[in-house]
Design brief:
2 domains, M1 Pyruvate Kinase, Domain 3, seven-stranded mixed β-barrel, 10% helix
Length: 253
């Protein structure tokens, strides 16, 4: 039986992942996931591609209270009710994303940690900042298979690949067989699988430290040669919204 083993989100895009036991998934994805993103002084998007150690910061967001918290690796925490000011527009994966820059101590704390000027932006609409599609899925067996390719020299965590859902009960690469099909997760959620997930340079970074520690792209391509990209995991769009919890059953339509 295929089930949900982990649910990953990151309220601030490109910060470290946190786990949820239960989430609501709307037509545009998990509403609090990637609700915020980072900009530099030139209004350019900043991610782990530019600053790997962003992964060491954990964020949490409660839409009901309007509070955002950031936890830094030294143990310090910044938590406050969100107050926003200037509106900005950014092009992200060919989409125009609009949001409001947060006022308060957010920018100073982040900028001091990263050594460059950064600002946090809250999008006007949930689900605006995903890369290509709102749902990313990988099986635990696929991750274990990738680890085995290193002859047990490396054990990779699911956080390195930043999926929304990690599945158990699958064979390695079994999720690839679902492209073009719909999967039901739990009693309500239906996801249409639309493509394989082309992996980027972030997979070469240690998800705990943000330091480059392994050529993941080469490892994938050696196992799965492809002229277009190093594919691992799948992308989906939400066909029917619903609530999902860990251990929920996954079935293929």
């Amino acid at each position: 039986m295929i089930t949900i083993e982990k649910i990953h989100i990151s309220p601030v895009k490109s910060l470290g992942l946190i786990n949820r036991d239960k989430v609501y998934v709307s037509k545009t994805g998990i509403p609090e996931d990637r609700r915020f993103f980072l900009l530099d002084d030139a209004n350019k998007l900043v991610t782990q591609r530019q600053i790997g150690k962003l992964t060491q910061i954990l964020s949490d967001y409660c839409p009901n209270s309007g509070k955002l918290s950031l936890q830094f690796p030294d143990g310090s925490t910044l938590e406050d009710t969100i107050v926003s000011k200037d509106t900005v527009k950014v092009i992200m994966w060919g989409r125009r994303v609009t949001g409001d820059i947060l006022e308060g101590s957010w920018s100073n704390k982040l900028s001091n940690y990263c050594g460059r000027s950064l600002r946090i932006v809250r999008t006007h609409k949930p689900g605006a900042t995903y890369d290509e599609f709102p749902i990313a899925i990988m099986s635990k067996s696929t991750i274990e298979h990738i680890s085995n390719l290193t002859s047990n020299k490396k054990v990779f965590e699911s956080e390195r690949f930043r999926p929304t859902f990690v599945l158990s009960g699958c064979n390695a690469y079994q999720e690839d067989e679902w492209i073009g099909q719909k999967i039901r997760i739990g009693d309500q959620l239906k996801v249409k699988v639309v493509s394989r997930d082309p992996r980027c340079v972030i997979t070469t970074l240690n998800p705990m430290t943000g330091e480059r520690d392994f050529d993941m792209i080469r490892l994938i391509l050696n196992d799965r040669p492809n002229l277009n990209a190093a594919y691992l995991g799948i992308y989906g769009i939400v066909d029917q919204a619903g609530t999902v919890a860990t251990n929920d059953k996954v079935s293929i339509s």
